[in-house]
Amino acid sequence: MTALEKYREATRVCPTLVEAWVRRSTASGLKREARHCARRALALGPTSARQFDLLSLAFPWKQRREVLLRGRSHFRATDSDYYSLWLDAALARWYLHEYPGYVAELRRLVTSHQRHIGRPADYYFFLLAMGCEAVGDYKRAEACYRETLRSRDQKERRRAAEHVVRARMRSGRFKAAREALDELRDTASPVARRMYSRGLAFLDGEKVAVSSKLVGEADKARNAFMAGVLALAAGDAAGARKRLLALVRSTEGNPSEWGVTFRWETAKARELLTASTAA
Q: The dihedral of CA 31, 34, 40, 43: what is its sign?
């Protein structure tokens, strides 16, 4: 008997057991069954924030947020999973494209409840920074990314340093982005330093020497935008076009995530593609 079959049997034998309906909902791969079970559990009344969080997974984002808000109104910070409801309710606003609301909720979570949240604070600051960029507030985004520079994990610190540079780049301040790169040279990865020092100089109108090796490093780092920029700087128009078109297509195919987080790069890629075609 599979786990799902056991949960189906449990709901048959004891139809008032909330946890059985929760487990059956999360175990089922069938949307109709998952939602039916979630509604039954919600009607009976979940007994923990964790149950509300799990039940919300059965629904599309708008209904999911409603379930999470309902759970948030039932429980307080004494429940160990309470802050998961806060975070997931905020994330629902991201996927509903309600970016100002997403930023407001995450800011409240970070500023009012920071000492209680389960994950390291830099995780929440990173999410908040993404929201600030989504609404075009690059200055505040940079401030949030700088908070994540405190991470104990070197990989996370390197990622944060790159995002500080990107936040300035995305606001069109290429010189300031290069200054940030110089400031964070001991934190940023060697590859990031090489990519952005040349790429930002090119975007700022300077002539720079770029090797095919550096373009390859950008490819390996999976930074399609900077790889395209560097290929242009190296005089490889065909290679640049291939990379920039790949970026545009990938962001268009993922409008709720990459289409937002790489919105500036996508617009700049189109601009560079138009300019290179005209030339």
A: negative
* pLDDT tier for residue 259 given thresholds of 50, 70 and 90: confident
Helices 138-147 + 121-134 axis angle, to 10: 170
CA distances from 186 to 49, 97, 161, 192 (A): 42, 36, 10, 11
Q: For residue 135, what are the contacts with CB-CB under 8 A and spacing of at least 6? A: 99, 100, 103
Q: What is the pTM of this model?
A: 0.86
Q: How many CA atoms lie within 13 A of 49 on its CB side?
A: 19
Closest to 166 in 3D by CA, of 210, 206, 129? 129
Residue 133, token pair as written in the block: 């960029």
Give me 53's structure tokens. Answer: 């969080």
Comparing CA positions, the residue from 108, 136, 155, 175 lying closest to residue 260 is 136
Distance separating alpha carbons of residues 143 and 126, to the nearest angstrom = 10
pLDDT tens profile 131-166? 999 999 999 999 999 999 988 889 999 999 999 999
177 located within any domain = no
Identify the domain containing residue 272 by its residue range. Answer: 211-279
Domain total of the chain: 1
Handedness of CA 171, 242, 276, 193 (dihedral sign): positive
